[in-house]
Structure formats: structure tokens, C-alpha cells
Amino acid sequence: MANPVIAVRDLVKQFGRFAALRGVTAEFAAGRCYAILGDNGAGKTTLLRSLASLSAPTRGTISIMGTTNLREVCSQLGYMAHPSLLYDELSGVENLRYFARLYGIDSEERCRDVIRAVNLDPSLERPVGQYSQGMRQRMSLARALLNDPKILLLDEPFSNVDVHSAREMTRLLTSLRDQGKTIFVVTHQAALLEGVADEFVWMEAGQIKERTHDFRPPEAR
Amino acid sequence: MNKGSGITRATLAKDLRLEWRSKDAINSMLFFALLVVVIFSFSFDPTAEESRRIAGGLVWVAFLFAAVVALNQTWARELRNQVLDAYRVSPAPANSLFLAKALGNFIFVAVLEALMTPLFIVFYNLRAVGPAYQLLVVAVLGTWALVVNGTFFAAISLRTRSREIMLPLLLFPISIPALLAMVEATSSILTGEFSAKFWIVLLVAYDVVFTMASLFLFELVLHAE
Q1: In A, which residues are within 8 Å of B10 by CB distance?
Q2: At A20, which CATH number?
Q3: More exposed terminus of chain B, fewer Cβ within 10 Å: N or C?
């Protein structure tokens, strides 16, 4: 690959004796959507957390946009975790207003724009803790989009989301990919990303088993 | 206004808003401190002279134990929904978060002290024989000593399994010099028997050293797994 936006070399991550990642080596191109698939415990979330600089590698290197110092590029990353990363006691706008300040964004309009982008109402005043799970997931996605990141790392964005909302989220992801953003989606619902993901990265036992253009698991092809 | 101080202000404002809505920390602290005041006042019936001698220790022990409640809360709300990860992936400096948390805890404990001090005065028949304004200096320096270390060690114990127990285990031994200075200075001022100047200088030195050390080391604590 000529100029990969992310290059991972021999990445090992151990938690005590358990190796969550066992020598992952891969390159990912800019402006593409990657679906990271695999069974529970395959290392998908650990890989995503490593890319987000939340989990330091035991061995190996991660290079993002040409640097291995991930703190240098953290303003270019958007991260959505399985938990919402939102304060339950604050409203959606209050949450985003705070997180925007962490990125040096003062614009209230930017917060409202990303809330609208995920099909939520920015005037909703009730605390996030009273949102439905689907609304919370979408607000979490809005938080990840707040800094207009070049790379989006999304962990299980469709879990507990109804089909209609999931379809809306995939439409948004398609549009973001078409804007040139690189997107990584960890999911168990690969079918939702058919036509959206450019590549399906299959993980097994802490390693990348194969990379395909087909969302179906190897045994179903 | 530089970026770091803007983030500190935003984090402090957010923490105050969260506390205003939940009242988790202040209610538990008040209840605990009130319990200490009432139980001790019924346990013995000190004359004014005796009160002045023991009040320094009593007041600060009540505030220290009550402060631990607030210190545990301050990071616990960052663990719900793993919100702390949102801070860790952002380019915001670690020190801004630490300062905001320490200032927030200072405000919570100061509010507690402001509410509880009149009760201590009434229940223990207290009156300062020495220079009373020095009590305010000791209160500010002593409270900062408690919260700056407390905020730091609460962050360290955040990922441990029994963090409610771990915090006092880490905090109390390291707070002994500050506690000694707070108690001795308060007793000196209340009894007027000797000058509190030495203890106040010790508190200033303690505050400076531990504030610098915490600011220096907090980035490691925040990004630890």
C-alpha cells in the first residue's frame, strides 16, 4: 500500500498471561470503511482501543498519519466505544458542549449540527440517562463526530439499535466515507455494512485471519 | 485565556453542574460530618478550655473522613459509561483535568466546612484566643492539602477493585504531616498558647510540593491502563 493512513506492525497486547492481540500486522488506506469482524474475544475491541491510544501495545508499533506518537494525531480521531462515554445527568447538548471544549471548539452550532446529523433533536433537554439505548448510541456517535475527525473508530455502533436507526447510521457512515474519512467499525452485524464497508477484516484469536470484500463468514461463502 | 485554563473551567463547571443535579458528594459529606459533631458532643461534656485543646483534632478528623466521600465520588462519575476514555482520547491536557477536579473538591469541602463550622462552635463552645483570621488561612491551606493529595490518590485507586478502601490506605499516611500541621495550628490559634506560624509555613510547603508533584505525575496516572 503506497501511503497507508494507519500501519500496524507485529502488534501484541497482553493482559497478564492472556494475549488479546498476537502479532497483528496490517495497513489501512485513507478514505475507506473497514468492518472489523470476529467472534467475542477475537481482539476487535483491543485493536480499536490500541488505535485510539487507549491501550498501549505490549510489543509492536502503530503508525497513524505517519507518526507513532498517537497523542500527536488524537485530534484527528473520533472514538465511539461500546459504553456511551456520556454523562447521564447532562442533556445531549450539555454533553457535547463540554466535549467540544476539550477539542478547542467553542461553537454551540457545531454541537447542534452533529446532533442533527445523527437524527436527534438538539433542543431535547432531558438528560442522556433518560434516552433510549438507540438514542444514546446515536448521541455517542455525535460525540465522536464533534471534532470532524479524519479517522473514525466505532465499537459496536449498532448494538441495541433498532433496524431503522441502524440503517440511518449506515447512511451517515456512507456519507462520511464519501467525504474522505477513514472508518473502522467493530460489529457483529456485518450485513448492515454491505455496500458501505470497502473491506471486511476478519479477526480470530488475536490475529487478522483474512481481509475480504464479502460480509459473509468464510464458512457461508 | 489559554486552552488549558479554558478546559479546566469547562471541566469544573461540568462537575459543579453534575453535583448540583445529583448532590451525591455533598449530601454524604454533610451527613457524615454532622454525625461526628453530634456523637462526639454527646460522648463527653468538655469545658470550654478542654474543647479548645481537642477541637483542632476533632474538626480536621471530621473533615478528612467526610472529604474522602467527595474524593471517591469525583472519579466515580467519570467511570460510569467510561466517560474518562472520552477525555483520554482528546487532545486536552491531563493537568487541566486534575486542576479542575482538585478545585471542584476544594469547593465541595469548603462548602462543608462553611456549613459545619458554626455547628462545631455551638456544640463545643469554641472561641479563638489567638488571632482568629489565621484559622481561615489554616482552613484554606489545610483543605487544599487534603484535596490535592486526595484527588491524585483517588485517581490512582480508580482502577483498583476496592477503591473505596484503597483511597484512605494511600491518602492517610501521606497526609500525616499536613494533618499534624492543621491540628497543631488550629489548636494553637484556639488556645492562644503559642504561635501557629511554623505550622502554617509547613502547610504552605506541603501544598506547594504536593501540588507540583501531582501536576507532574498526573499524566502518567490518567493514561495508565
Answers
A1: 98, 101-102
A2: 3.40.50.300
A3: N
